[in-house]
Fold this sequence. Notes:
By secondary structure, the chain is an all-alpha fold. It has a single domain (3-217), classed as Ferritin, core subunit, four-helix bundle (Ferritin). 65% of the residues lie in helices and 3% in strands. It contains nine helices and two strands. The chain has a two-stranded antiparallel ribbon with strand order 1-2. Helix 5 packs antiparallel against helix 7 (139-161) and helix 7 (139-161) packs antiparallel against helix 8 (168-191). The longest helix is centred in the middle third of the chain and has 27 residues, at 96-122. The chain starts with a helix and ends in a 5-residue tail after the last helix.
Amino acid sequence: MSNQKLADVEGLVHPELAGVEIVDGSGGDVSRSDVLLKGALAAGAIYGTFMVAPFVRSAFAMGGTSDVDILNFALTLEYLESTFYDEAMKKVKATGELKKLLPLLASDEKQHVEALEGTIKKLGGKPVSKPTFNFEYSGTSGFLKLAETLENTGVGAYNGAGPSIKSKEVLGAAGSIVQVEGRHAAAIALQNGQEPAPAAFDMPLEEKEVLKAVEPLIA
């Protein structure tokens, strides 16, 4: 779903995700990782971030997915988050605890990028090119709202991809990243005056609910 079509959808759960644009960075065809990330963002915008995990899980369950494919999807997600916080370091007029938090978040995401690139190469794969991203938000409050949504989207994306990972070593590495992403989401939620863990479990969904919600997003 294109950004324009997504922006035209009424009643978005997370309209801030509709303003995130992803442009392929290779100068050629759009990579599968770009497409999957756009779909994950669309799922989060329309149905809520709790829908990201089943969307990603369904996409990878279609077959023909290697661990390198999954890692490149994760790398594209980390490119997005790393770029987002790098830009925020210059754009957001942070004070207090947020001023201390921003450099930590930016550093963590940069290290995630480097770790994923290294793992992909170790497995004999080629890291995907970094896309160009555009984030639409205004002021500190706009940044915090988008940051919380992106972090929750990231957690959902990792949880959705996890069951398709074949290597225990790769699964362990992905698990170590998603734990940190969850802590990021909690830290940002506190900055927004929200509960860092409002429920003991993520909302469960029946398969028919997932298929009904995901179908319009998969071409």
